[in-house]
Amino acid sequence: MQPRLEIEFLRDDPAKIWVKACNETFAGETEQYINAQMFEKLAEQLSTFPQSNSDEVSFKVGDVDSSYGHCELKFHCFDSVGHTAVLVSLSNDTACTAKFTVQFEALSLDAFVSSIKLALKSGSGVSELIGIKPYTQNV
User: Fold this and answer.
1) 6-9 contacts at long range (C-beta below 8 A, 24 or more positions apart)
2) Cα–Cα 20 to 30 A to 40, which of 16, 52, 61, 126?
């Protein structure tokens, strides 16, 4: 399984996202209603991420204990060299939960941010952050 984070966006009234993510061991998905400005803010914050090794960008929709599910994404540097990952925490309306990390490289993040901005502009779209296997990041 190729590690990845995928967010499908639909600007409707209200806007909606479908989030799917996996690493080599775990996978999860959820569907959440959001305010489109939250998604815009995520794109803005990620376009300058990371500015330092302690930089974090968080995106949260719903509550962990909600019967409707939740989505929490925490983009961060996991070492002093600035290698990046996103901590993914998802649950859905059938009480399935998943929490895991997807490591990624800067080029993949740039493409992800561009696709989020395109989805926002057009009103819908799929944005994919392609992850890497943990052992490939030993640079």
Assistant:
1) 6/126, 6/127, 6/128, 6/129, 7/116, 7/126, 7/127, 7/128, 8/124, 8/125, 8/126, 8/127, 9/39, 9/116, 9/119, 9/120, 9/124, 9/125, 9/126, 9/127
2) 52
